[in-house]
Amino acid sequence: MSSKKQLSQVTDFDLRLLRLFKVVAESGSFSAAESALGITRSAVSLQMSDLEKRLGMRLCQRGRAGFALTDEGREVLRAGEVLLTAVENFRGEVNQINNQLRGELNIGIVNNLVTQPHMSITRALKTLRERSDEIRINISMSTPGEIERGLFDGRLHVGVVPLNTPLSGLDYSQLYEERSSLYCSHEHPFFHADSEPDNEQLGAVDAVVPSYRMTAEAIGLHQLLNCTASASDREGIAFLILTGSYIGCLPDHYAANWVAKGQMKALCPQRLFFDSRLAIVTRKGRRPNLLLEAFLSTLQPAS
């Protein structure tokens, strides 16, 4: 792009495009940014072109040779990060001055926690909403890794993830524990067996393993199994179990509905289980945010 032009005014549309550009740059390609942004690759490409037209410069090279930021793109990325941080800090500080709960709270939660009986998150959101009608709550259901990335890049204010391997740069606070057991569906041969399967029998059938990080206890249980399939989240594991072709581990609260309907049962529940800690996670060194602090103070760890 040879023509250079002055940017007369920074609009909300420009800020949205800069946030998208930041995610694309951190992801390393348009295709890798798809899942992080929740939009198609063509939509990412279109919005990147809009930003380049607005700024009058090429920000990145893309094509068969791969993805790379131009020199100008690296400078815009640096300046954009400064601007986006300043905007968020300004909004938070104004709300602090007003001492009013207003604005957006972006929360990332791992899938299938809504059936957790403690309902700590649900109660906290209810209390927060009752305190102000000027709050916009945005919840995204994602994998633990995506939530942690969202906290690092500022797209999320707070997340709820399994407390497996804490990452430096993030603060984790345990919320509650949940138990997971090994399950099969009513179409699996184990379901109607007269006795519980032993370890040799368990290792002789197909099983599904999570593709996200696990605790040492969970890894030990899965090492007993013949894991021939994987799933990125709990819903994917449930899908495969319900085919009748696989056994796999699910949180007991999540599997309870299928158990009640006679569509699943736990295998060897007295010995084949593991407990996972669920944690509230935020970014270390975050600036004061009245809305976020109100949400965190409302959460009560379950006993």
Contiguous uncertain segments of 5+ residues = none
Question: What is the tally of beta strands?
Answer: 11
How many angstroms separate the termini? 60 Å
> Structural class of the secondary structure composition?
alpha/beta
- CATH top level assignment of the largest domain: Alpha Beta
Whole-angstrom Rg:
23 Å
Beta-strand proportion: 15-25%
Global shape: globular
The CATH architecture of the largest domain comes to 3-Layer(aba) Sandwich
- CATH topology call of the largest domain: D-Maltodextrin-Binding Protein, domain 2
Could you state the order of secondary-structure elements as H and E?
HHHEEHEHEHEEHEHEHEHEEH
CATH superfamily of the largest domain: Periplasmic binding protein-like II
Query: What does the largest sheet look like?
Result: 7 strands, mixed
Q: Report helical residue fraction.
A: 40-55%
Organism: Oceanimonas pelagia
GO molecular function: DNA-binding transcription factor activity; transcription cis-regulatory region binding
Pfam family, one: HTH_1
Protein name: LysR family transcriptional regulator
